[in-house]
Every structure is written in C-alpha cells, then in structure tokens.
Amino acid sequence: MRIEMKINGVKKYFDISPDEYLVDTLRNNGYxxxxxxxDTGICGCCTVHMDGRAILSCIMLSAKAHxxxxxxxxxxxxxxxxxxxxxxxxxxxxxxxxxxxxxxNILYMEKAIKEPTDKEILHYLNxxxxxxxxYTGQLRAIKKYLEAKNYENRK
Length: 155
Fold this sequence. Notes:
By secondary structure, this protein is an alpha+beta fold. About 40% of the residues lie in helices and about 15% in strands.
C-alpha cells in the first residue's frame, strides 16, 4: 500500500503494510527521534503532531496518516531546543528517552492554551510517563519556559 504524507514540510511517499503503525513508518525512514515506548498509547514517547495536533504514533495506523502533515521534533528543532534547555536547567533531563514526546506535547499545549494553569499543564503532562525524574521538576521547567516565552512576546 502506498501512502503520501508531508513530514516536517516535505512531501514523502511510503510503501507500507496495512497494519503498520506510524511510529514504525517514521522510525524506518530515519525519524528516530520518535521513540517506541509502550505500544499501547499510555507513555507519550511516540508523540508527534498531525495537522498541528499532538497524537500518539504507536496507536495510529500509518494508512490513517495518508494525506496529512506530520511534524516530528526535527521539524520544530529551534523551539524544541528552547524547551529542552528549561528541562535541563531544572534537572529533569536524565535519560532523555521521554523528552521528545514530552516536548512535542508542551509545544502542542502552548498552541492550544494561551496561559495554562498548573492544573492544565499537569493535564497535558498526564500522557507522558517519566521514570527518572518525577513531575515536579517538569512542571517548574514548563512554567519557566512559558513565562520566558510570554516575556519575549511582550517585548
């Protein structure tokens, strides 16, 4: 089965099997920032954006992505670096396995909610499991990132 997707702004064609998941299509074609974690949609490591919305690529059949725009962390490299630095500064970047999915969710939340409350931030973090750090540091880092971004936007 042949599908077409726009990945990070570039039109791509893939030959897939009907039961292939998007995480596999992406990873098999060099987008290795998309991590395989749980394969059940509960850990968030495989989060990418499809048409601007955060999705879990381990439970999305590649065929359903046909004709859609997919963004991986490589497609938002500069924004991801900024978010990542705040995570590092708060000491929550230990093994880093969950980081790409977490950052993709943070960037989606940033677009979806103008000034999220702690409760809303925690809601967005809910789908990202981290075994290294716990979530207090992540919350601090996200709040500092959003505060800095809001400050920059006001200049």
